[in-house]
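Chain A, query sequence.
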Amino acid sequence: MVVLVPGPPCSRDAKLLSDEELDILMSVTMSVTQRDFINPDTNTPDTVFYVLYSTVGTRLCKMIDKPDTAGKASKLICRIVTFLDNEFEQIQSLAISHVTSIASKEAKALGPHMEAMVKLFVVEENTEMLFPIAKVYSSNPEPLAPHFQTFFDLIDSRDDDVRSLVLTLMIDIAQRQPQLFEDVHITTIIDEMRAANDSEQASYVTILLHLSQQRPDVIVKHTATLIQADVHKQHGRRLLFNVLKNVAVGSPQVSEAEPVMEYYTKFLSGPEDGELSPLVLNAIRAVGAIHRPLLDNRKPFIADLKDTTRVQAVKDTCIFILDVLEGRSLEVLSADMKGVKQEVGQLGEEVTSTGARVDNVQNDVTVQKQRVDRVEVRVDYQGRELRDLGGTVEDTVSKVEEIDKKTLNHAPFWARDVSKLLNPESKHDWRLLSSRLGYSNDDIRGWVQTADPCQSMLNEWYSTHKTRDATFGVLQTLQEMNRTDAAAIVENAMKIAETVVDDEPQDYKSPPEIFISYQWGKQPEVQLLQRHLSSAGYSCWLDVGQMGGGDKLFEKIDRGIRAATVVLCCVTDNYASSPNCNREVNLAVTLGKPIIPLLLEKCTWPPAGSMGPIFSEYLFIRFFSRPGEEVEADAFWSKAKFRELLLQLSYNKVEVSLQVEPEYKDWWNKIAATVHIPLNKRSGDGTQSKPTSAMKASETADVFLSYQWGKQPQVQKLFARLTSLGYTCWMDVHQMGGGDSLFDKIDKGVRGSKVVISCVTTKYCLSANCRREVSLADALKKPIVPVLLEPTAWPPSGPMSMVLTSLVYIDLSKDERVQESWKGEKVDELVQKIQNVVNPQRCDDDKKPPQDVRQGQTTSRSQRSNTDAKSKSCVLL
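Chain A, predicted structure.
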């Protein structure tokens, strides 16, 4: 029993409550929520339990302000979320206020409930949910994606508070899910930005900034409109300049970057702005680094700007750009310094010589007085020059040391290109890379104060790690961050590095017949696969140890693919997004090379991106093990999958060119036959033929089994039953393997069959592949026999109804035991329909009257009985 005393614990601050008191308060509130809030007399929420919940629960929600408190209140939070769609407005409003209170202090606690919050907003259009949704979005962004358009439509709301919350949410979405924005959304954002007041313009430009960092291709077509946009506030103009810079840097076409450079030049030609002018000039430098001709054309303008500017930062940047354009470097400054030192040495020698002359002149002061005076004047003059030259040398040394700090470090040459991509502020910038590499927030704050934060961080990383380990660490981290642009730079640099010192060359008597295409993050696994394939007698082409000169990189890959008989694609998510891997796959497809996809990790199929349309036609071989599978001792794949790969290589006529190790000798004898027909197949005249082996994919079949994979065990037993009766059957699991063309094999199976058995279930009617099989059979006028494996409305709804509505089905859904044994009256009916199509002549003969009746003779009762029995046997067959 719970006793409430004056001054309840909820009136105190959560930090003053002990863990025991807080647990008691949570327990009481949770117990109250499970009681009835509705008074049956008034039909309103005014019971003592509701009053207690509204007071204690409200204060308790305000105490949820840190992760440990949220963890204790997780069950209560789940209960509060269920009240969001309560039919009583008063209870619903109270739940919304509680959710808003929790979201303002500990939004992550509501992350698992994001879908329920979004559903309430979409269904009831309750704008009060916008604030908690905007707060919780970063913890769980996926539930919002299907309803993005609903939220985006509020961007032009007349309610200032609603519009402000939606803009905040759109900024977060542009950072985390930029793929949701399409061209129509970009157009709307730009139109609203041009019409918005000064305080809101910055929010619209911030959305465009995040999109330009990750998807400059969707912004580039709006460059002219952005250049003409009238943005008044200083902060908004800074953001707009950065948007245009990202678009120009990300554009592969010089013509698309030219308007941006012209806009920057026009701005710098106007009144000088001490804050924006350095920003614009740095943007010119960044665009010029990608499109050098645009920077060369503006060399006279930059030289004039250096002489006329009054802002030191602008002058320094102009000098730097001119130095780059004119080829000045550290070596030139060092040579100048050496020349100055030589001049100083010569002057020193002259001073020594002059001192000696003074000593000689002092012996004859009277005679040489005038000459001594002239020598003293000269000595004073040279002393002043010596001091001036000394100051010049010190300044030169200081500048050389400053340049050394900027240019000489432990990081490799490609670090500057990576730094240009990661230095601009974004969700996945250099700060996230530093954190993933294990650096603390204090380290990151220290690098922020340097001229090039990312370069400074990489310098520290390479100074404390071995170069190869450091490079692989950076590459893997960039891939995990989904920064494929920076990862491609590192990957290309690693491949070029392989060309400097070749590994031991692999001496092939003939070009390798297998080309292995992979992404460099999986190099150890692929090298292990190559060793096993070599043990099985196959020669493989890998880009490790075979490169030669750096300029031969793509030429060697081209030769490897052209000489190969088959291409193995080691597919991962990073493989699908790698530009180099995309080139290899496209070349293999263009050359018509057979492709066998190996799935090295669990990912969607076909993979997203440009490889999706290519791989959608192929079946993959799953090359990662699952719990309970038999795995090779020194491998990460199951034995069955490696044997499936060897079968596919044999099917594609890949010759064994190396010595086969004992473990892979006669490997094909270890694989059970796919299909064996236990009984002898009947010939057309009813006699028995010799036993046949499993049918090949190229042979025609009596029966094509069309089914959905959820019913595969039952259809396997039907397959065994029909083959035991002597019919040849086509079933995908027996006729297809990894690397096979999915639609090509199914097309040949349907065309080569005599009758199609359609195993109808609810999922079968919804399956796209099953619909294709039925449509193809109908188009080819193949007999179709529908078999109901579970209760289903007839005809089934959807595209299949047009084909199946006129057919008579066989219902096997009433007794599931029939689908285990495949025996009984309904199965006999199915077999009879198959026999009518496969061998109609035999059934017709059995139905004819006995020979003696046809000759006008009478028949005995026993003879007629034998004839009837023979006819029944045809039906059972």
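The two ends are 75 Å apart (CA to CA). Residues 701-838 form a domain with the Rossmann fold fold (CATH 3.40.50.10140).
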